[in-house]
Amino acid sequence: MALWSRASRLDVINLALGGIFAVAPKVNEALLKLAVAAAKAALPAWSWGSRAAALEALAAALEPRMTEFAG
To answer: Structure pTM?
Structure first.
């Protein structure tokens, strides 16, 4: 269930190009605090070390199949 509806949204505009490149929810302070708390809680589980380890494992799995991906 979404915490915000499509009607309560903000267009995010690329100032360099002048066009909309994303849509963000328009939320109240309580929902903003909830989102920030969730992001802070998730951060330790996705630390730099764990990201590096995940990318190294992915590279090790893909390396033997390099020729398949090369074309």
So the answer is: 0.46
